[in-house]
Design goal:
Rossmann fold
Length: 307
Amino acid sequence: MKVTIVGAGNVGAVTAQRVLSYQLASEVVIVDVVDGIAQGKALDIYESAPLVRSDCRIIGTSGYGETAGSDVVVVTAGIARRPGMTRDDLLVKNADIVQEVTRRIVEQSPECILIIVSSPLEEMTYVALQASGFDRSRVIGMAGALDAARLKTFISMDLGVAVEDVEVMVLGGHGDSLIPLMRYATVAGLPASQLLTPDRSKALVERTRNAGTEIIDLLKTGSAFYAPSAAVTAMIEAIARNKPRIIPCAVHLDGEYGLDDVVVGVPVKLGRTGMQEIIEIELLEEEHAMLRSVAQTMRTNIAKLPV
């Protein structure tokens, strides 16, 4: 596998380091418009290869020629949220960036799978889909994987249990438009509702929705990157090792869940060819109404963009 990461910021760099350490690719390319940043971080990561016993080759570049023939391309490029900013504040500026990046990538790697991380996530995934001309199975947004991990972490912390015993499923948008399906949540196979009071459950959901903002407020000069990069890496692993996994991701819907021509988070089977299947689970009317509301917000935002 050859993996390209566009954007040498914290999410991109840590993802590159994880891909090398886990040996998910034979080659990783980091691209960044600021000359020297991608090259310096790539060299630093590459020098760790003997210590983690990885034969993965990693290079940094300011151009796209070296990305040719990539199997997976992760797009993290764009302006990151800062204190006081909403994801909507990033909409138009990042749409221009993602559109240009996608076109450059497609020129070099017309058969690749795109994983979009740029914010606001669902809208940028839609922009990349339109700009690439790819089948929807090859343009996937990283959202639910991160939100699910955050919710699992908070449940684990609250109950004092191992994180691997916690399973959850989420839908909808990233962050504050998250739709957590707590009735499907389990702890060691037991319904989480038997272990969490309704008030505690509600509080954990709210913390998950605001988890990104919580980290921004603590860091003051940046946003989350360790957990987002781990979520991206889990998606890359499913593709690189052809290890089909059901992961909540942002994908384009074409009739599923009664929605058309919109990108929202749903559970998908992710494997070597990208999105292999959209899993349609039974929803309560309240949950379905929330999903339709999220979809409408996405449509409203997309209508503001020249795509």
